[in-house]
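Final report, Chapter 2: Outcomes

The project's central promise was a pipeline that accepts a single protein chain and returns its three-dimensional structure in a standardized token representation, suitable for archiving and comparison. That pipeline is now operational. To close this chapter, we reproduce one record exactly as it appears in the project archive, with the input sequence first and the structure output second.
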Amino acid sequence: MGPVALVVPDLRAVLVAVEAGAGVSVLPRYLAEPALAAGSVVQLHDPEVAPLNTLYLATRRGAPANPATTVVRDRLIEAAAQWGGL
């Protein structure tokens, strides 16, 4: 692994830096797709299995339920029934 060449505030800035020739990076497809389609960046690796982007919904045990968090939890449980196994 090479040394860090640049520190920027967000992934959009990383993409701009890569487009300007600052080096290589790993970026999410949703962000890089327009630049890939325009030919301003190229994909160097195409893994057989896309990396997971695991998110966790956590709440404090014993705390009163937040109605918004409860809605998110319920929707995730409903959606997960359709996901199947990894």
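Archive annotation: The helical segments are 11-19, 29-38, 67-83.
This record, like all others produced under the grant, will remain available to the consortium after the project formally closes.
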